[in-house]
Hints:
This protein is of the alpha/beta class and 237 residues long. It has helices spanning 4-8, 24-29, 32-59, 69-72, 85-96, 129-147, 168-174, 187-194, 198-222, 224-236; strands spanning 80-84, 106-110, 115-122, 155-162, 184-186.
Amino acid sequence: MKTKKDLFSKLLIEKSKKGREDGAYSRLFGNNELGALISRIHATSISAGTFLEHYIACFAPLLDEEKIPQIFNNTLEKSVFLITKKSIKNKITPFLQLDKAVEPDFIIIDSLRHKCLVIELKDGDNFDTKKSSGEVKNLKYYQNAISQKLPYPWIAEIKICMFNQNEKSKIVNGFRNTISEAEAMSGDEFCKILGISKDTIIQARTEAHNPNLDFVLRELLRITICSEKIKAILKDR
Length: 237
């Protein structure tokens, strides 16, 4: 597993690869250097979603892969565990004999309440209808497959977790009403179930704010056309 330091670097624009100079942003601004910078910022914002998934795994009570079979023979110790996407792919998908499955981001196993939560984790809170429908379909396909293997009285449920949104109605709206409120999960609820601190995870992102702002401002001043326009604007103020 990657260290917290390695994961934190995914939040830093300065640590990302140089952006494309011939991409859409260059055409939008008419300047390759500026286009590359915006492209770099965009790429970092995408990697932030990966950061969230892996950073959660640093704090959550993970279920060892060798114990996964105990879920299905009802011998697992009484507790709450998180199963990562890697472990889902390695152990659960083969057990379910699913050849073309799209694995969920996480599965939460609550052996105290005999619940198996099949979870898609989202950083943002607004998605197009086609994407939403497809992801719900994949989750329900996986949920149904697990349900057939779980012992009584276990049940499997799907959850769409929008980590930074706490209002269930807004989660449903953001997912274009393709889920019910019962299938929506807030970041607070997700962390509470696992007994981890949402604030600690948010704090890691907060620490990236100033380095990112400083880097972007330095890069803007390095680009001649930007520095000239900034100086002109400041002069007129």
